[in-house]
Design brief:
It comes from Saccharothrix longispora. Keywords: Membrane, Transmembrane, Transmembrane helix. This is DUF3040 family protein. By secondary structure, the protein is mainly alpha-helical. It contains 3 helices and no strands.
Length: 114
């Protein structure tokens, strides 16, 4: 039998065991001792470290959606050529899905109405 907390992803709890909320401050690790926690650059670096230390399972639907969310967040933070590359990649994926649907619907219509 699974416990009530068995469905929690590993990144849902901080190191001290309390649940992470949206408005919780990012925990500053040992790497950031001596830095001002109110400094925006320090907070951005702490968020970066937090993202790097998370390892959600990629073989589940939730893990796959988390990976898509992480890609979207990183694409929104990017600028210049990286952002253009992300936009082109997403556009090509959507174009491939659209073309596949078009051919599938065409085959479906010819089967039923031929």
């Amino acid at each position: 039998m699974a416990s009530a907390g068995a469905a929690d992803l590993p990144d849902d709890r901080s190191r001290d065991g309390r649940d992470r909320g949206d408005d919780d401050l990012v925990d500053l690790d040992d790497e950031l001792i001596g830095l001002d926690p109110d400094d925006p650059e320090t907070r951005a670096f702490a968020e970066h470290l937090d993202r790097m230390k998370r390892h959600p399972p990629n073989f589940t639907v939730e893990g796959s959606l988390a990976a898509v969310e992480q890609f979207a967040d990183s694409a929104n933070r990017a600028a210049g050529l990286r952002r253009l590359t992300a936009v082109i990649l997403v556009s090509l994926i959507l174009l491939g899905v659209g073309v596949s649907l078009w051919y599938y619907l065409g085959d479906l219509l010819t089967v039923f109405f031929d």
